[in-house]
Amino acid sequence: MSRYDGRGGNGGNVYLVPSTSMAFIDIKKELGGKSKVKAQSGGHSQKVRLVGDNGEHTYVKVPVGIEAVDMERNVLLARCSRPFQKYLIACGGSGGNARNHYKGEPGEQFDISLHLKLRPNVGLVGFPNAGKSTLMKAFVPRKSIKIAAYPFTTTKPQVAFWVAEKRKEDEESDFTLSIADLPGLIEGASQNRGKGYQFLKHLEYADVLLLVVDCLGFQLSNKPGEPFRSPLEVVALLNHELENYSKKLVQKPALLVLNKIDISPDKEEPSRLAEKLRSLDWPLQLPEKLRPRFPLQFDYVIPISAKLGEIEELKRALIRTYRNLHPSEVPQDLLEDDDKSLL
């Protein structure tokens, strides 16, 4: 149709659309088992219709928090963080016209990988065997959580929903926080040692970080040369891993719990350590090589026994911290004097 200066329609685009009701496992069903997604081609120009119709766009639903990465260039194409917003992944090609000698242009084509990042209200951070899963169990006793006395019991992120009990019968709904228990980090996690990237990425969207530290210290194994770390050193090393992965993580509100006080031989030591860590200059108590560049400033430092379920003070601290971030989301019933029982 060049003699009539006809124009072919443009090809459709491919978009990702985040949905709050979709899980990662549902993506395969959304694609109908196919591994290739394409939009409709543009329509041809005709004698009776010189301008062809544009091709229809293709929309693929994905869970909120999905990131689409071009596998060949390792480039982020889209970070799908806002529900129901359309994220452009691939543009359709231009239809045939005088500028391209009436030969339609191919659309963009990518091989992409999809990565899901959780969006918990609270992200648990700690070295292996610090008691994170036990703490999760203390928050949500009815959830099935694997707990054992050896490192790396948690092998993939677990999410539970803690529901604060109503204090008034006429309240419309409970106050709920989602809590993500991540597998234990190890030194070098921010350089992807021990699959650190796969775990740290889930903290990017967390509202609050909750560091869980064994008040007795930590040693990964009894192998020769494996260093023992004091609780203060553990806090510093966790701080290092967070800041090395992303400085934004150490800017988030953070709480610290010193766990396992029920088995501490010196019952006063956890309280003394907590007092040190509440100070703004807590890193100065460490050798210079262990001091983090961007020290975490903890809203609360609380000695606890997750095993015995002694976490009432921690529950109140989490509510206060979350209230400061999202005051409209916390029921007025939970904003009463802190001297009163919140739960």
Automatic annotation (TrEMBL):
<dbReference type="Pfam" id="PF01926">
    <property type="entry name" value="MMR_HSR1"/>
</dbReference>
<dbReference type="GO" id="GO:0042254">
    <property type="term" value="P:ribosome biogenesis"/>
</dbReference>
<feature type="domain" description="OBG-type G">
    <location>
        <begin position="120"/>
        <end position="324"/>
    </location>
</feature>
<dbReference type="GO" id="GO:0000287">
    <property type="term" value="F:magnesium ion binding"/>
</dbReference>
<dbReference type="InterPro" id="IPR006169">
    <property type="entry name" value="GTP1_OBG_dom"/>
</dbReference>
<dbReference type="GO" id="GO:0003924">
    <property type="term" value="F:GTPase activity"/>
</dbReference>
<keyword id="KW-0547">Nucleotide-binding</keyword>
<protein>
    <recommendedName>
        <fullName>Obg family GTPase CgtA</fullName>
    </recommendedName>
</protein>
<dbReference type="GO" id="GO:0005525">
    <property type="term" value="F:GTP binding"/>
</dbReference>
<dbReference type="InterPro" id="IPR036726">
    <property type="entry name" value="GTP1_OBG_dom_sf"/>
</dbReference>
<dbReference type="GO" id="GO:0005730">
    <property type="term" value="C:nucleolus"/>
</dbReference>
<keyword id="KW-0690">Ribosome biogenesis</keyword>
<dbReference type="InterPro" id="IPR006073">
    <property type="entry name" value="GTP-bd"/>
</dbReference>
<dbReference type="Pfam" id="PF01018">
    <property type="entry name" value="GTP1_OBG"/>
</dbReference>
<dbReference type="InterPro" id="IPR031167">
    <property type="entry name" value="G_OBG"/>
</dbReference>
<dbReference type="InterPro" id="IPR027417">
    <property type="entry name" value="P-loop_NTPase"/>
</dbReference>
<dbReference type="InterPro" id="IPR045086">
    <property type="entry name" value="OBG_GTPase"/>
</dbReference>
<feature type="domain" description="Obg">
    <location>
        <begin position="1"/>
        <end position="119"/>
    </location>
</feature>
<keyword id="KW-0539">Nucleus</keyword>
<dbReference type="GO" id="GO:0005739">
    <property type="term" value="C:mitochondrion"/>
</dbReference>
<dbReference type="InterPro" id="IPR014100">
    <property type="entry name" value="GTP-bd_Obg/CgtA"/>
</dbReference>
<keyword id="KW-0342">GTP-binding</keyword>
<comment type="similarity">
    <text>Belongs to the TRAFAC class OBG-HflX-like GTPase superfamily. OBG GTPase family.</text>
</comment>
